[in-house]
Amino acid sequence: MRVRVVTDSTCDVPEELLAKHNIRMLPAYIHFGLESLKDDGVSITKEELYRRLRSSNTIPTTAAFPPGEAEVVYEELLQEADHIISFHLSSTLSGIFSSALVASKAVAPEKITVVDTGLVSMAAGWIAIMAAEMAEQGRELSTILEEVDSAKQRSTLWASPETLEFLRRSGRINWVIAGMGTLLQIKPLVMVKGGAVTQDGRVRTFKNALKELVAKARQEAPLERLAILHLDNAELAISMQEELADIAPPHTVTVCASSAIATHFGPGGLGVATLRKKP
Fold first, then answer.
1. Fewest CB within 10 A of the end CB: N or C in the chain?
2. Residues facing residue 6 across a β-bridge
């Protein structure tokens, strides 16, 4: 059975890995006022997005791709594939999963499996890559989906924003917490796992947040996959990668998060996406 993999821009799969594994990416949308831009690195580059976030008073918003765009991709892939697995960020964070599901039902629901990873960024991206690798090896669809379920249970993302301002403006956290954090320079450690977004600790200063992110990654070792994530903060991401070099599996990547994620999290933040090895 020929299986193809689809994902979306919020899963942060690097372009070289999309190309290597023949994965199709559906971009989310970013809205600056009346301006609507695809999160595809072309309509707006990450560099331009971060420049705007730092300098503009306009509060950007994000939106899922319309089902019609996914339908076009699904129909095209089914010309050569027997089945599609479409991976998306947690449905608790976006309407992207719902949009993909609507598209799959309109095209060929028996030939398209839409996966709510319950994750975001490369925590979801690694699962899509793993599925694509298995498809390349000719593994059965049922086996791939079993491994996907296992990987979802073993995957976690932790992140810490440089400032709480963007989370406050996007409505993702309580106003009072944001105010206290700004006043006291408290940095929350945000954990995304199993569809839940929770606070997994708080530290004073961003330097301490970096240390905690390293500690969180270490507690998951031994690792099958690891991604270092940053939001236009490459220098500190490199420092974190060096701190984790002794536990980093082969093909560990450092990724600048997608523009859609940056819109809510703001520039400067850091994160780690881990996939634990099976016991």
1. C
2. 24, 86
Q: For the segment 121-173, what is each residue's pLDDT rounded down to a tens digit?
A: 999 999 999 999 999 999 999 999 999 999 999 999 999 988 777 776 665 55
Q: Which of 176, 151, 178 is nearest to 163 (CA)?
A: 178
Cα–Cα distance measured from residue 265 to residue 195, given in angstroms and rounded to the nearest whole number: 18
CA distance 120 to 113: 18
How many CB atoms lie under 10 A from the CB of residue 133?
15
Give residue 164's pLDDT: 76
pTM confidence score: 0.93
> Smallest Cα–Cα separation from 68: which of 24, 105, 32?
105
Q: Do domains 3-153 and 155-276 have the same CATH topology?
A: no
Please report the pLDDT score of residue 172 as a whole number.
52
Distance (Å, whole) CA 171 – CA 119: 19
When pLDDT is averaged across residues 99-109 and rounded to a whole number, the result is 98
| Domain covering 3-153, topology | Rossmann fold (3.40.50)
Residue range 155-276 in CATH 3.30.1180.10: yes
Strand partners, 115: 87
Q: Is 122 helix (H, G, I), strand (E, B) or coil?
A: helix
Domain ranges of the chain: 3-153, 155-276
Query: Cβ distance 263 to 30 under 8 Å?
Result: yes
| Confidence bin at 176 (pLDDT 50/70/90) | very low
